[in-house]
Structures are given as structure tokens and as C-alpha cells.
Amino acid sequence: MASTAISRRSVAAVSIGFAAALALGGCSTSVASQPETTSAGSGIGAGVTSSAQLNGDPAATSTALTQLAQIPIKGRAPKTGYDRALFGVAWTDDVDVEFGHNGCDTRNDILRRDLTDLTFKDGNNRCTVQTGTLDDPYTNTVISFTRGQDTSSAVQIDHVVALSDAWQKGAQQLDTQTRTNLANDPRNLRAVDGPANQQKSDSDAASWLPPNKGYRCQYVTAQVEVKATYGLWVTQAEHDAIAGVLQDCGGTAPTQQSVATSAPIATSKPIVTSKPVVTSAPAPATAPFKNCAAAKAAGAAPVRIGDPGYGPHLDGDSDGIACEK
Fold first, then answer.
1. Contacts of 303 (CB under 8 A, 6+ apart)
2. What is the pLDDT of residues 269-316, one digit of tens each?
3. 66, containing H or E segment
4. Is the Cβ–Cβ distance between 50 and 23 less than 8 Å?
5. CB 138, CB 212: distance < 8 Å
6. Which segments within the chain are labelled E, that is strand?
7. Angle subtended at Cα 165 by Cα 159 and Cα 166, rounded to the nearest 5 degrees
8. pTM (whole model) above 0.85
């Protein structure tokens, strides 16, 4: 598939500068007959560099600044037509990125990578995280995670480059499989404090940065990598905000920055074979739907954490997606 080949070439082009900061591992598939416990994360992404290490490495931040200079600077496109479904089934394992086709859904892959003191639900190949501890990078607090209708939302999976932001900055031009890869790429995902994730919403770096200043360098570095990998652009305000953070972290800007209209790292744009049919989005709900029947009547089902109308009482299996059936 042309888009997959392009994505792989893009990944190869940008991964060299970030290998030390974003090393990732694999997913265990051993079957458990009863809940299992570990004292640390499963090893998935255990090599991710700490913010202190990255912030203290001028070479790494200078590399990020060099790549930022190659990302085109354009205005934000209209959000018209955006729908989460255009980025594939939420947390699908059917992707061509790290952890894809490993038998575990993406949400649990990231929980396994980012949490410690893990326990797993029995009979599920150690994929479903039951409990764990998150050292939250966004707020610099420690959060206990327990899977459940009233507790799962304490820890949410954030798209570092929000999908709505990506849609307005080039993802409209990608095919569905490439957008699905973007939505499930571990480099673009972090397990974080739920309220902080809600506060961020679909903001870019110009309007939101993690409250934990010690993590901001790693946060914007990840945004640069993702946008370069998938051929997305940045606005001028976003570019300046990212550059300011990286320079504060000790990075040095390249002598000559690329022209704003220069091509992204991707050698060519993915071939779009057909455009998805976009239906009108339902009017935002001001409060959670009373039940799934109401959500379906409003045309909003399935409802995901962060979407208008979502409520834990609608999410029977506590996977962050309500009224999916």
C-alpha cells in the first residue's frame, strides 16, 4: 500500500534523531490463569528517556529544532468534516506501527508501557491492565489506576498531537490507514492524568503545555517527531511556542531555517484512493446522555471519553468508549 510505504520511509527518516528518547519494546502474550502482578511496567516503551535526561541534552533538543525547521508553517485549515471515526476504530490493533498486531488493544499497550505495579485481568493474555501506578508526566503527581466504571477515567491516554489538530494541519490529505496509524502510534500516545487531558482537549503547543514544566521539552519533541513523520504542518504561533521550549531546554536553532513552504520529511504524499463519507456531527451535549438510547437517538454513539455527552455510567466495560454496540 503506497501510504504504508510512505509512512515507513517517513518513520525511518525521523527516527534517528529520537531513538535515544523514544525506545519501545514488545507486548507479552503469555496467558494468565489468574490476575498477575508486576512491580514495574511490562517493558513496553520502558526505554523512553526521562524528561530530566532529555532536557539536559542540548544535542537532542538541537535535533528537534532542526526537524522543526523542516516542518511547513501554514494556517490552520477548517475543522469541517472532522470525525474521530476517520482515524479508524479506537485503539485498534490492526495498525502498521509499534505494538500493532500483537494481540493487545492500543489503550492497554500504553497502560502497560507507562504504568508500574501492574496487575492484569485473568484469561486475557496479560493485555488488560486491571490496576497500576502512574507517575504522571503532565502534572508530576502519582496516580493510582483501577479499572472500573467510576475509576478508569482517572488515567486517560492522550494523543500528544490531538487528532482534531492533526486533521486541521494535513491529516485530511492522508488515507484512512495512515490516519489510523497516527491515532495508534505509541510515539503520539501517553498515559496521563485524566483532568489534565480534558483540559488540553485538542490544543496545540501554542495554547497548551503540560503544567509540569520539567516535561515540556519531551512533550514538544514528541509533537515535532509525530508531525514530521506524518507530513503535518504547524501554525506560526505553534512553531514559535515549540521553538521557545526547545531553546529553553538548551537546544540551538539551525543557522538557516527551511522555507515555510518546503516539503515535509515525507518524500511524497500518501495516495488517497477515495474520500470517506462525512456525515454532519451531532450538536454537542451539555451533559452526559441519560442512557445509550439517548446517545444513539442524537447520532452520537459511540461516545468516547472527552466527547460531549460521555459519562462513565454509559461505559459498561470502562474502556473509554461508551454505547459502542
1. 289, 295, 309, 310, 314, 321, 322, 323
2. 444 444 444 444 444 445 787 788 887 778 777 777 767 777 777 777
3. helix 58-70
4. no
5. yes
6. 22-23, 47-48, 115-120, 129-135, 142-146, 155-159, 189-193, 303-304, 321-322
7. 80
8. no
Q: Cβ of 236: how many Cβ atoms within 10 Å?
A: 12
Place of cell 503540560: 210
Name the one residue in this structure whose C-alpha cell is 502519582: 142
**DSSP-derived 3-state class of residue 234:** strand
CA angle, residues 87, 91, 94, in degrees to nearest 5: 80
Q: Are 157 and 320 in contact (CB under 8 A)?
A: yes
* Side-chain half-sphere exposure of 226, counting CA atoms within 13 A: 30
Q: Are 42 and 28 in contact (CB under 8 A)?
A: yes
Report CA torsion sign: 207, 178, 186, 199: positive
Angle at which helix 216-229 crosses helix 2-15, to 10 degrees, equals: 140
Asked if residues 134 and 114 have their Cβ atoms less than 8 Å apart, the reply is yes
Q: Which three cell numbers stand for residue 101?
A: 498486531
What is the distance, to the nearest Å, from the Cα of residue 93 to the centroid of all Cα atoms in its chain? 14
Residue among 170, 3, 169 at smallest CA distance from 95: 3
pLDDT digits (tens, 9 = 90+) for 207-253: 999 999 999 999 999 999 999 999 999 999 999 999 999 999 987 87
From CA 184, how far away is CA 188, in angstroms rounded?
7
Burial of 301 (0-12, 13-18, 19+ CB in 10 A): buried
CA 220 to chain centre: 13
Query: Which phi and psi (to 5°) does residue 113 adopt?
Result: -70, -40
Among 166, 228, 276, CA closest to 7: 228
Q: Is the peptide bond before 302 cis (omega within 30 degrees of 0)?
A: yes
Encoded amino acid at 33, one letter: S
Residue type, 22: L
H or E element, residue 188:
none
Place of cell 495554547: 207
What are the E-state strand segments in 2-63?
22-23, 47-48
